[in-house]
Amino acid sequence: MKGDEHLAISLATAAVVLVPWISLAQPEWLVAALFGVFIGALAPDADANDSAIFHTRVPGVKGKRLIILPIFGYVIRYLVYYPISLPFIAVLGERGMPRHRGILHSAIGVGLMTMVLGIYAWVIGIVGLHIAWDTGYTVFLLGFLGGSVCHLLEDSCTRSGVAWLFPLSEHRTRGAIVTGGNDWRPSIYAAAMAAAAVGLFVAGATGRIPGGFLPYAGIALAAALWVFFLFIARFGR
Q1: Are the CB atoms for 57 and 64 separated by under 8 Å?
Q2: Which domain holds residue 11?
Q3: 237 lies in a domain?
Q4: How confident is the model at residue 132 (pLDDT cuts 50, 70, 90)?
């Protein structure tokens, strides 16, 4: 999918997950989580030269630029992606070489990317700048991981698909959506998630969801919607 589609669907998914936590979590934690999702939603495409994460222009937002976006892009590509590729190259040879929708488009790669980024943050912050590790950093990394997983889910709806277990398996989960085409489904996915977030907020505010279940209602609803999205993405092949 395109960068603006990745952002719209991923941020809408994050809204569904985070809405129940509005009254429970500190506001700065919610901001950190959303910023993590914003970066993570574009991060797996650091394996492609023309990725949106290498540009200052915010995808889908005319006239808006974010100078930190390419900083994250180049850090992920040269200090995270290439280093974590080395063991796979050593073991798998050419099959482990950096390529689009390779290791960064897998569950293993996304997990390693998040872990290495966290190590860099810890070394620079605590060891280098003597800044205590705050919950906000953890929340950012969780948001980053969530945004990256959303990216993989979204690409799993396309014809190129995603090999979730690469390099253990090259089996790809595929759909029928053509990246850059005129398919209406990415926009519908984003709109459906946004509507679900609003509905969940209203249901929580009016007491229609039991208080004990409310913090987890967003995760359950987002997961159910994604099962449905992946199902309907298969039609039209």
Answers
A1: yes
A2: 3-232
A3: no
A4: confident
